[in-house]
Amino acid sequence: MKLLKYSIIGIFLLAGCKKYLSEEPTKLTSVQTVDQLEALVNNAPRFAEEQNSTAAFSTDDYEITRALYEKNPSAFGNDQLQYYVFSVDGVAGQSSDMLWSGEYKKIFAANLILENIDEVKGDNAIRNRVKADAYFIRAYANWVLVNNYCAPYSAANLTSLGLPLKKTVDYEESGKRATLKETYDFILSDIAEAQKTAPDDVDPRLAWRVSQKAISAFLSRFYLFTGDYDRSLAESDKALATTKRELVDYNLLAAGNPETYPVNNTVITLNYSELNDWSSFNGSKYLYWKESYYTRYVTNPMQWYVPSSALLALYDTQNDLRYKKLMIPNGGLRMAVSDPETFRYTMFHDGSHLLEGMTISEVLLNKAEVLARKGNPTAMDPVNQLRMKRMVTGQFVALSATGKDDAIKKVLEERRRELPFVMRWYDIRRFSVNDYPADDITVTRDFFNVSITGVAVNSPKTYTLDAKRYLVPITNLDIQASKGQLVQNPY
Fold it and tell me: What is the DSSP letter of 487?
């Protein structure tokens, strides 16, 4: 029997594509069973967490006003500000990129499993399920990477730079970038392989493991983003046929642990929902969110998502429980910021974890958007199905639309209310290349001149996100480590 070639522990010590290309993993010959490979995919936080500074800081959902920064410069790191002002050199010049390296670590782990799954001893039912997990892990990681570092999907961009497609654990495998089309085709081929052996529905105890319903939820998103609306609609309906997932009624969320802060001879209390307390310190309850088809989170080590005034203005502040329970007035106090008063958006794990994996709420919004873009008069039905679980009991009023344009507008507003920060970057990109100019988004920052070395608070400057910067720069260190194989995006 062929023994497992590489250390399962060692794979998580790799720093990403850089070391993937330049360092051979540690040799080990002790892992010989499918159960040991299953233990790898059951290490949920390794695959469920995604540190994504672009999602956190680069969209119009996030706002640092000049007054907020002037009075609290220490609350915002210079690395973070490079993403905030859409800097190319400032992001490319950073010493590490946890999104790039983190997703390639997941890809390496998936490749490790796939290269050995048919050789190790064990139960074939477990073998097939682990194989499906590995294919899906690789597909999802590549989807995240391509939607950050490559051009938005469109016919005009298909020959542009895609990703280095890592298909083995060979550290000498090419690091050259495939085309965008080849990258998307590879993602779909992995999804097709996962479909062959994935179980039908979500296991509530193992929501980070793939299922047919999770795959349909992913394809609902995938085809929406690639403009294949009929397929997106069909996959949405398949996913919504789940019997294991359900919408959570926000009216039933309990109060969380409040926090108090002394400010100007008074005490201010921050009131959270129970979700804020769901952390790795209480059984990682956030991994078991009832709406999740597949557990994945964007994480922000700064734990401060600062909602923009434009985002806050979209909510019914009296009746929308997403505002009342997740938008925390004076939330800046958690970061020692009291002046000016500043909101903080929190969901799980003391505000550090936001849902990015597929959920029932997202699939309903995918379905609603497709129906709206197709001019279907039932487009608001999925939106209202969601809103019934998000509005104060007795205050739900069904939304209606006067026509196609109004329906698209209202569906996209609801999408932004439901999925702030984590999906906004992706939406900004895809709206820019579809055939509907009315949904295009211009993101501007009225801030200060930001350089790699610091912020000039005496030099106000306005920044505008342009199409070239829809592509996140790859760090110079990763490019240099590739020894000429990996090339930067054109700016």
Answer: -
